[in-house]
Structures are given as structure tokens and as C-alpha cells.
Amino acid sequence: MGKMEIKTNVMRILEQQKIPHTVHEYPCPDGAVDGRTVAHMIGREEEQVFKTLVTVGVSRTNYVFVIPVAEELNLKKAAKAVGEKSIAMIRQAELFPLTGYVHGGCSPIGMKKHLRTVFDETAELLDTVIVSAGKIGWQVETAPGDLLTLTGGSTAELTGE
Asked: What H or E segment, with its residue span, contains residue 76?
């Protein structure tokens, strides 16, 4: 019995754009697991695995921030990076209608609407970065430069004091 070939929208986009990537699968019988656990399950450093956070600014504009899984988003730094007075996380109920992704399977690639995306600056120091493949249980690993190009993203300092 062959391994079932799962193709998420994220994987299709990477293939269409001819972007080299590696797919990682991890077990998640009970739904989403936290990013640190994902990193350990796929045998990668926590610094290399990034989580995708969707926020809303005072201007009602949505933004995406992609940061290492072990870090917390510094809302002040994030607001500064996109020129907002302040930003807040969106409510979980708003995530799917806005992005087409569920909590725990949110990828910066292939969201329903193109949202301004900012990656933590540490991404640029890595050879490859791992983000969700758009489905719980799946991650994709690709070069940070390719991710920035694909998402039209920028980088900024987003974590720490």
C-alpha cells in the first residue's frame, strides 16, 4: 500500500513557482500541537520552525507575522514594523474566514486574501525555514528568500523585549 500523497494548496503553490522545498509530516491524532512539539517531532531546531500569526491593526487592516515557534510576538515591535499605533491578535473565529486556514494549520503561503506579511529577522540567518503547509500535521521547509518573495514579505525584529 503506497503512502497517500497529500497535496495542500501550499505545496501546489511551491511546485507551481518551482520553489525547492521539503515536506514534513508529523502525527497529530488529537488535532493541533504546539510549535515546539512540532519541531521535535520533525527533528528540527525550534529556531528553524516558524508559526504564522494573524493580527489586526487600529486601522482595521490585517497583518501576518511569522516568528520562531518558541518566541512570543512583541505587539509593540510588530505594530512599529507595519506602521500601526497598535495591533492585536485576531479572534480565532475570524481566522478561517480571513485566511482559509484553521488554527494550528495556518501558513503564510496561499492565504485567501493577500495580507501584508512580516517575518522575524532571524529567518534571514537560516538556510531554510519551516512553516505550516496549510494543514495540521504538515510542514514545508524552504529557503527564507523564497518565502519572502512568494509572500511579498519583509523582515523586522518582532520578538524579545
From this structure: helix 75-82
**pLDDT (tens digit per residue) in 55-105:** 999 999 999 999 999 999 999 999 999 999 999 999 999 999 999 999 999
| DSSP secondary structure of 2-17 | PPP----HHHHHHHHT
Q: Could you report how far apart the first and last alpha carbons of the chain are, in Å? A: 51
Report the b/e string of 54-79 with b at 16+ CB within 10 A.
bbbbeeeebbbbbbbbebebbbebbb
Cell numbers for 1 = 500500500
Grid coordinates of 42: 520533525
Closest CA to 62 of 93, 88, 92, 100: 88
- CA torsion sign, 157 to 73 to 160 to 133? negative
- For residue 96 the three cell numbers come to 478561517
- Dihedral of CA 98/100/102/108: which sign? negative
Entry pTM: 0.94
Residue located via cell numbers 494550528: 104
pLDDT tens by residue, 6-44: 799 999 999 999 999 999 999 887 877 888 999 999 999
